[in-house]
Fold:
Amino acid sequence: MGKSRQKRGQELTMYGKISGETRKKSQTVFVYAGIVLFLVFALFPIIWILLMSLKTDKDIISSVPKIFFSPTLDNYKTLIFGIKSAGSEISRPDFILYFKNSLIITTGAVLTSLAVGIPAAYALARFKFKLKEDIAFTFLSFRFAPEIAVIIPIFTIYKMLFLYNTYIGMILVYQLITLPLIIWIMRGYFEDIPVEIEQAARVDGYSWLKVFSKIALPLVKPGLASTAILSFIFAWNNFIFGLVLGAKETFPATVGTLGFISYESVLWGQMAAASMITILPEIIIAFFIQKYLVSGLSMGAIRG
Amino acid sequence: MSSRKSMSNKIVPYLFILPALLLTIGILYPFLLSLLYSLTDYHLGSPVTKFIGLSNYLRLFGSTYFWKSLGLTLGFAAAAVTVQLILGLCGAMLLDTDVKGIKIARSLIILPLMMPPVVAALMWKVIMAPNGILNYLTGLSQYSWLGSNSTALISILIIDTWIYTPFVTVILLAGLRSLPAEPYEAALLDGGSAWFTFRSLTLPMIKPFLILAALFRTIDSLKAFDIIYATTKGGPGSSTMLLQVKAYFESFRHYNMGYALSHMMILWLVIFFISRFLVKNWGKAVKSAARN
Structure:
């Protein structure tokens, strides 16, 4: 494919020909203005809710939105310890339970998908066998189906098998999110390993299992980490499975945040704090592994 | 010895894939059940379920609610994909530069994409509330963006755009960065205008990525549920009652499981045909981009 454009200067990347210094300068200003506009749009809601989570109820409902106020951690305290803030507030310590549920379900789902999906991805990348592409396409096609279409029969089956409102049931249904993702992305990483390396090991008398565990697996480790994290995020963000197949004992945090809105009142401050706590793991991940995440995301999308 | 080896070579792939395959069969089973259930009068409250053939579908096709919901779903998806592709391409081209601080901008811009859509929707619900900051900034007094017939769906479109434009941006940025340099060098020598370069070089070469982003956004926006459930629950009236939301209320509020599933089978077909159309065009675009 030749030299990719990213190694070239900015002049070539988007403007075609650039004649003089002045024009370049004005274009840089234009680029900055565009990026700032984009960032304001992308970040304003998050910052606004962060501020809201640090406000008292009186500051929140003030008719002129307050940018300057004396911050308080009361909303977070109420959320975590269930203490009463400002006298009359109802405490919702169950949010911590929802957060814990999210951790258990999401981690369990990702680990299960890794255990089952990595060997499958390897087989799809390396072996020739009957119905291979059909099986691969079946994994992918789960994405096409509307969730409600799958949830109704699963709900019926879960009620029968006593899987409704259990962690195991949740982890199983979350495979719909994590398994296709892991299989499709990992298949790509396995395909990128030069076949010769593995053939040499085979000649040396390694069994397939050994080639897989001693040679292929260590080579895809970085890809594996980013794929696991990407599927963690997708699972963490899910809402509809928990809403329908869980109850108070197994609700994930995404369902829990909705609990602050009821017919009588909306606990704005606590809802904002809960939102912040829910996105916390993802913000942390975003900052630490951003580079891998973007490549994983585009790869995941491009491959499947 | 050697025949045993080749035997084991035949079995090994299946052994590797077996656990995933079992799980997949476990997942496929409910898929088949859903088709079957859509042909019955399955109701959570009633003890017996009867096979009623295509009755659910006939009832569906005679219902004005269904046609309205289907229309809203298709319109919403078309608008969402169009707006997000345009904004996403602008974003990708802005980020495909090497100005100072671009790396930080690249990582900050994906934040909306990382958070749960439900939480993002709640954030916007706060912003769009009658006493929210959006009214303060636009000078409207106590206007309910999500509670008014005329703006509810547009408000949901704004939230959807906020969440998913970064997704399109990430895909297109990866695409832009993979383009070959030679055609641009030639264009530079020929002295073509920026607009000409964009239209005759960038756009055709980025087309496969555009179609891919469109494919994923189309599938997901046709299935829109989370944002609507967290904000309007299909209201006011039925002005934001897209198909999946309608099927949710039909099934888990009114317990008409069979009838709800007939909605979903139609939506499934719609998604299938639109996806197939896009995948075909994607193949064509890849070929013609390779020729370039």
In short: The mean pLDDT of chain B is 88. Chain B touches chain A through 107 residues (CB under 8 Å). Residues 2-37 of chain B form the longest helix (36 residues).
